[in-house]
Amino acid sequence: MSTTARAGQLVKAPVDVYGIEGRYAHAIYSAATKNKKLDAVDKDMKKVEQLLEQDKKFAAFVLDPTLKKTQKKDAIESAMKKQGLTDLSVNALSAMAENGRLPKLPAILRSFQTLMGAHRGEVTCTVTTAKPLDKKTMEELSAALSGFLKKGQSLQLEAKVDAEILGGMVVTIGDKYVDMSTASKIKILPTLEDMNERCTNTTTKHTSIYNIGEMDFINSRTIADISEAIVDINVKLL
């Protein structure tokens, strides 16, 4: 499997994935789609991901950059055939070993799952808060954010905790990023104060403050709508 194939030879990806891992993931997705084995290959990749998590020896072998490529290629082919993987998946992993890319395997698997999620119409949304969210707040967020999905899409809501944001929340949904955290407001205060000192017109001062304070939201109407939809929930977390 060559990742240098021209884009025209690959099946169009449902979402863009980047870097070396993205190129390999896209190549696997394309080959599986062309051969009508996408579901089977998806199961294979999940099995490999599980092996990496549960088998420390296998993970150490895969991630070891000092082993010879030929040694890795032969071993990975044998091991994956014993696991019952499809020929397409075995060939993909063999190509990674031959090209010295097996240490990138965890990232490749993540990129592949990103493609599969998009293929299934799943939209991943990550909500980061300073403290864990309760069930009711999660349900409120899910209801508010689901309104931005297209027909046939489903929301995959993931909650993370990062005490450094201090309060409020940071929301990533699809390719949109909305930072409504206390930390971001504090960070921007010196810039606002500096601009206010330069302004002589009171109206201009307030406009400048509004524009800078909302700059994450005014670049796109969709982002502005998202922030408006969840602003009441965010206030509770400040």
TrEMBL record:
Superkingdom of this protein's organism: Eukaryota
A GO-annotated cellular component: membrane
InterPro entries attached to this UniProt entry: ATP_synth_OSCP/delta_N_sf, ATPase_OSCP/dsu
Localization, UniProt: Membrane
DNA repair in keyword set: no
Gene3D superfamilies documented for this protein: N-terminal domain of the delta subunit of the F1F0-ATP synthase
SUPFAM superfamilies referenced in this protein's UniProt entry, alphabetically: N-terminal domain of the delta subunit of the F1F0-ATP synthase
Keywords: ATP synthesis, Hydrogen ion transport, Ion transport, Membrane, Transport
Chief location bin: membrane
MF-aspect GO terms: proton-transporting ATP synthase activity, rotational mechanism
NCBIfam families (alphabetical): ATP_synt_delta
Family to which the UniProt record says this protein belongs: Belongs to the ATPase delta chain family.
Protein name (record): Oligomycin sensitivity conferral protein
